[in-house]
Amino acid sequence: MTPRELCRRLQDYLETHALGAVLPAPFEVEFAEDSAVQPDVLVILESQRQRLTAERFYGPLALVVEVVSYSSKRTDRLEKRELYLTEGVLRDACAVTWPHGKVLPMLPAEPKLRLVTG
Fold first, then answer.
1. Would you say residue 42 lies in a domain?
2. Does any domain span residue 118?
3. Which CATH number do you get for residue 83?
4. Domain assignment present for 89
5. What is the pLDDT of residues 20-48, one digit of tens each?
6. Which domain holds residue 80?
7. Which pLDDT tens digit goes with each residue over 46-90?
8. pLDDT for residue 49
9. Fewer Cβ atoms within 10 A, N terminus or C terminus of the chain?
């Protein structure tokens, strides 16, 4: 599954159940003035829409997906993982290896990422 296909499937589900919306990269998420990222895929629930502007989303998200490639694996698996944990996103974050399509949940209770195939 490509990142584009993942976005489409998530959006279909969210629209069917009137839950929220999916935004693909590039779209900035700001946690604080000195702390912002651009996840590959982000899910915003209807109850969170008041934190969404045309330029960025403010605060923790409902779901974050990082597509991990060879060149981004350190940033996605370590730096962004720590930021998401600190900002309260990590309980709903995952990393997807590309092009293999393996899903790696970023679970705070585990010191390492756990591999889950889907």
1. yes
2. no
3. 3.90.1570.10
4. yes
5. 999 988 889 998 888 888 888 888 989 99
6. 3-105
7. 999 999 999 999 998 888 888 777 787 777 777 887 888 778 775
8. 92
9. C
Distances (CA, A) of 19 to 7, 48, 49, 68: 14, 10, 11, 26
Task: State how far the Cα of 87 lies from the Cα of 61, in Å rounded to an integer.
Answer: 10
Q: State the total domains in the chain.
A: 1
Judge whether 51 lies within some domain: yes
CB 66 within 8 A of CB 40: yes
- Residue 55, phi then psi, degrees to nearest 5: -95, -35
Amino acid 117: pLDDT: 41
Is residue 90 within 8 A of residue 80, CB to CB? The reply is no
Instruction: For CA atoms 12, 14, 18, 24, give the dihedral sign.
Output: negative
Look at residue 106 and give its three-state secondary structure.
Answer: coil
